[in-house]
Amino acid sequence: MNDDYEKWYREDRLPHIYCPGCGNGTVINATIHAVNAMGWELDNTIFISGIGCSSRAPGYISTDSLHTTHGRALSFATGVKMARPDFNVVVFTGDGDLSAIGGNHFIHACRRNIDITVICMNNMIYGMTGGQGSPCTPVGAISTTTPYGAAEPVFDLAELAMAAGANYVSRWTTYHVKELTKAIQAGLETPGFSFIESMTQCPTSFGRRNNLRTASLMVEQMRTCSMLIQKKNRLEAEGKPVPPHRWTVGEFVRRNRPVLGVKP
Amino acid sequence: MQGNIACAEGALAAGCSFFGGYPITPSTEVAEFMAKELPKRGGVFIQMEDELGSAGSIIGASWTGARAMTATSGPGFSLMMENIGYAIMTETPIVFVNIQRGGPSTGQPTMGAQGDMMQCRFGSHGDISIIALVPSSVQEMFDLTVKAFNLADRFRVPVFLMSDETIGHMREKIIIPDEVEIVPRKLLEKGELPFKAGPDGVPGFPQFGMGYGVHVTGLTHDERGYPEATNPEVHANLVKRLVSKVESKRHEIADYDLVNPEAETVFITYGPATRTVRQIMHDHPEKNLGHLNLRIVWPFPEKLLEAFPNVKHFIMPEMNLGQMVREVRQHTAVPVISVPKIGGEMHSPAELLAVLEDLS
Amino acid sequence: MKLVIDENRCKGCNLCITVCPYGIFQEGTKLNKKGIIVPVLDRPGRCTNCRLQHLYGRRLCGLCQLTCPDQAISWVEEGPYEDHIVVIEY
Question: Which of A48, A174, A243, C64 is least crowded, fewest Cβ atoms below 10 Å from its Cβ?
Fold first, then answer.
């Protein structure tokens, strides 16, 4: 953690519009620390985002940035990276932006293994528009469009990225800030499509309707409900029952599939 | 040479270095040619997973400084509308080639039509203004593609080449000049605000990677580029500028042929119907017909209609059920006879002669 | 070094209180002029970074700064010791 990371923030735009206790601010901190630790230049790094609370993040970062249409951030990122492979491209996106409307682009970006890093702030809800359910809203959770409890199964974004061919996939929560920062840095270093999913607290839209009214309560829940992937694999290998309602956190995959968009 | 290939050659001559596309009949030949030729010249071709991805990728590439284009047809065009609106709002210079086919919906993939003329102007939501060019020959497919890139870079607006399957799949001899005129985009001066326009209404281009630190967003933004979505004045100023930067120059950039302005019966055409009218005028000089062939259809240059002082009737043959005729009728008191034709075939000289017979 | 919470940026989410492993923060009691109850430093002497950053030459712990969603926490050089009044409740 070095102190010159301040240059990455647009200081004149802070304090930002996020609600008190929003996890997005934490994820931005982790990303900026990781990007700075990589030694990247401001002029060479491009941040791209879709629409939503997560996607307001590039507006607070000093580099060139593209705030695009809902779900399409990955196609814009593909265009930027393929036209200029020497740029470092980082994409901020949310769970609805990535998996619902942007699902097709997500699958193909993983398949192409294009050399960008995607950070998904998964708050399990559509936050900016008031709290509608998303494909990642847990079963039974209340949201404005699922007033009787969400009925659809949850989308496991990390598993999807792994199956579609991403080179680096990991998931952490905003409680595990240090591991999240290290995971983002590993993703930035790994050539190919790097996907880091962060379970993020949204006390205003999700927490308020689901008995987790403060950010602290949600973060406490993240601590208790996370399970390291190594532990889960071990329990399954030993045939012991895996406790339900747990997020698997950790590094899912790191591999060396062929990459698109790296400067030769 | 085929029309689609001429269009691709024109793009390469103009310096196009990025093509993000999705195959759709009848525009696939453009993509296939670019797939073969672009890598030879150090450009990038990528086949995206759908048309929305295509539009997104070319906008992203354009921001890195590349001249980018895509080619599509009706159904794909409808899919791209949101990203077209984004390109207009962020003032991204890109070229869309629409080889129109019979619509609506899947329609006639292998037959020509001109049913998207209103869609290119009004298809995306909100108040917008764009530039649309219509070729009527294979040579024009080449020339107008080059012109499209120059206009896009000058006005920082998406430019549409509204061709159709008839011209796209036609084969004619063309002349490819050794050098074409390329008017590159004006870069932003350091220290200036990224979205503050000069007197011509177009700001300098803050290309990525040159230290501008620009934030580009589709939200209503102020001159620094930051979102300012709840301020009525900022929004009004921004959208008015986006529309007027194109509309105010509609007569300056107008590209047309005006034949026999003294005539009493004048044809107004764009695209394939031009060829039919030229044939009639060649065969029947005694009928004293006039002809206005528009190569730039949007923004519509209405003052050209006043160039015919003796006109009693305008006749507009179109390969749709009457789209541009609405625009003409708004701007003239002279009766305008619409000759719509759908089904995929061009107007034949006999049909237009029959219309002339009915008139007299 | 001294830990400082920027009152301009803090939104009173109290996450720093939850995550600090040394428990140096405590919920504040007074509203500031933005209407936020900013956390106060209950036991600043237990902050590892404040005490040892100079010794190790790099940021230690720093969980509060990383977690704070509003980038409100920073460390500044401490001036020479100033007398202050201590209130003891018993």
Answer: A243
